Amino acid sequence: MVRYFSPLLSAGVVMLIGCPVASYGRQEAVSTQGQATQSQKVGLDEITEGRVTATISFLASDELAGRATGSDEFNIAARYVASRFRGAGLDGKLADGDYFHVTMKPMVKTPSTPVRLADAESKPIAQFGLLAAGSEILNYTGMVKPVDLASELPGSGLDGVVGGMLTTNLKGSRMISQVARMTNTLQEAGAKALLLGVSDDSELIQTSREYQEKPRSESARGKFAIPVILVPESALSSASIQLEVPAAIVSESPMRNVIGLLEGTDPELSKEAVLFSAHLDHLGAKPIAGDGIFNGADDDASGVTAVVMLADAFAKMPRPKRSLLFMTFWGEESGLLGSKQFVETPAWPLDQIRANVNIEMIGRPESGARNKIWMTGWQESDLGVVMNKASLPFGVEIFEHPKFSAMLYRQSDNWSFAQKGVIAHSFSAGSLHSDYHQVDDEWDRLEIPHMTRVIQGLFIGSLPIAYGEATPNKQNKN
Ligand SMILES: [Zn+2]
C-alpha cells in the first residue's frame, strides 16, 4: 500500500480524478493510466516535450559533430551536461566541484608536415593520403612487397614497405580499426609501412587527407603500429618507392565523465545511491561532401537527454532518502571505456550503488511498443519488476524483450558496473533501426512524445527506490 508521504503508486486504490488537490505529505490517491499524483507532478512537470526537444536538438546538432570521444565537440557536450547539472542544483563535489570525472589519455594526431611518396625515378606519386603515421619517422627507399590482405597475413619474412588492396566491406571506424589490427600483425612480421590500395575513384584518399590533424583517441580507432598510406590501385604497381613519413604527434588529453549528485536526506539510506547514466560519445564525423556527421540522436543523445531531464525532475521533488547520481560517459562506442574507468576509480563506493539505470536509445519505438521500455539482463535482478510496479499504473510498461533483453545486456555501460557486482541494467525504448550507427540518426527522426513519456515512466518507476520504499535485489538464479 501507499505509505505516508509517498510518491508511489500502487494498483487498485482510488483514482485522483475529482479529488481536491492532494498536498504533499498526505496519503495520496493513486493515478490510473497516465495520470500522476500531485506530488509526482512536481517532478513530472519538468519533463516536457519542449524541454526534451530543446536538449536533444542541441546534443545531436551538426555543430557537435557526432561527439567523438576526446574531440572539442565532445568536450562542449560534456560542458553542456555539467552546466545543466549545475543549473538543476546538483552537487559537483564528487568531481572536484566541477562535475568532471577526468582521465588523461593519449590522443594521436597525424602530422600535416610533408609526407613524400615517389617512385624509383623520384617522380612524385600525386594521389595518396596518410591514414595514420607511426610512432617514429620513416625514411625508406626500396621495393614494395605485395601482400594479400584478404587472406591470412604472413607471420614473418616481411621487411620494408608492403602493399596490398583494401578488401574489407567494413566502413568508417570499423574499417579503420580493422586496418589498425592488420598493422600490428604486419609489424610483427617485419613490415615498416603499408601502402593500402583503393579503387582509383575512391573517396577514401580525400577523406584521409581531411582527417589529418584531427586529434583522435587511439583506442577509438585502433592503434596503428606502422604508417598506412592510401594509394590508388594503379600506384601499387610501382615496384620501388621512396617514402618519408613524419612521426605521429601524441598528446595527453582529458577524457570526461560528467557526474552530479543529489544527496539523500536519510542518515543511513543517503549513503546508498541510485545511478542514472547514459553515454555522451558517439562516432564523430567523416569529412565528406554532404552529410558525414554521425549525430547519434537516438544513440545516445536520447539517453543523455533522459539523464538531464531526470536530474531536473528529481531536483524539484522533496529530497529523496537515497542519494541520486547522474552521470554521462565518454568512450562507450570504443568499448565502454569511460564507465570502465569509473568503476576502477569510483567517486562513490560501488557496493553502495543500489541500482544503475543506464539509458540507451529511447527515441524510436519498435512497432507495438510505443510508451514501453525494455530492460536488458531481465533475469539478473528484479529491478525491472520493481520499477514496472510503479510505472505500469502510470501507463508506461517496463518489460523483458524476448530478444534484446538478453542480447544487449553486455553491450552498454551498465555492464561495467554489473561486472563489479552492481545491479545494473540498460533501459531502452527503441529498436535497432536502419539508422543505427548511420549518419541519418538525426533528432528530427525521433518520436518526441514517446521519448518524453518514456522518461516520465523512468522517473515514476524510480521513485520507490529513490525514496527508500523499495530495494531491488539480485535474482537468485538456479
Ligand atoms: Zn549506445
Summary of the model, kept short:
The protein is an alpha/beta fold and 478 residues long.
Account of the 3D structure:
This protein has 478 residues and is of the alpha/beta class. The protein folds into two domains: 282 residues, Aminopeptidase, CATH 3.40.630.10; 137 residues, Glucose Oxidase, domain 1, CATH 3.50.30.30. 27% of the residues lie in helices and 21% in strands. The chain starts with 37 loop residues before the first helix and ends in a 12-residue tail after the last helix. 49% of the residues are buried. Zinc ion binds next to helix 7.
Q: How many whole angstroms does the radius of gyration measure?
A: 26 Å
Q: Find the structural class using helix and strand composition.
A: alpha/beta
Oligomer: single chain
Question: What is the N-to-C order of secondary-structure elements (H for helix, E for strand)?
Answer: HHHEEEEEHEHEHEEEEHEHEEHEHHEH
Q: Per the principal axes of the C-alpha atoms, what is the gross shape?
A: elongated
| Distance from first to last alpha carbon | 31 Å
Which cofactor or ligand species appear? zinc ion
Instruction: Describe the sheet with the most strands.
Output: 9 strands, mixed
